[in-house]
Amino acid sequence: MTDWTSVGIGAVVTAALTIVLAFIFFPLLFLGPIFAGFLTAYLIREEYEFESGTINGAIAGALGGLIIGVLSLLGVGIVAGAIALILAGLGIALGIVGTLIVIFITILAIIICGVLAAIGGAIGDYIKSSGQREYID
Q: Residue 130: phi, psi to the nearest 5?
């Protein structure tokens, strides 16, 4: 079962943290989806089963990757529009090529963020459930 509140929070955290970490130091952007998946799994209510943290983390990461793609598309549209005002023919060609590149990057971001957030969700699920286990001597 999917806890949409925690998935929504995880998706926003995925997008925001990934973008911020990419601007600070590029290799750190992979920590954004992992942390967001961890947070998503940790925020899930108690009535969900053990594997739901991984599933909810993956959904949150995929939605976060989609948010990153939409924001990238808006950025490319603004740049292409500015160039189109200056040079009419070049702006249209740049807009088409930029849109195709952003679609590819969006698909890649959805896959990468989804997998990394699923890993973070599994880690969060494990840590959350470790306090609930009983150890047998």
A: -70, -25
Note whether residue 113 is domain-resident.
Answer: yes
For the chain, give the DSSP string: ---HHHHHHHHHHHHHHHHHHHHH-GGGGGHHHHHHHHHHHHHS-TTS-TTHHHHHHHHHHHHHHHHHHHHHHHHHHHHHHHHHHH-HHHHHHHHHHHHHHHHHHHHHHHHHHHHHHHHHHHHHHHHHHHTT-----
The Cα 95–Cα 7 span in angstroms is 33
Domain ranges, residue 42: 4-130
- 0.85 exceeded by the pTM? no
Instruction: Tell whether 25 is covered by a domain.
Output: yes
Residue 47 main-chain phi, psi, to 5 deg: -80, 0
Report residue 96's pLDDT band, with 50, 70 and 90 as the boundaries: confident
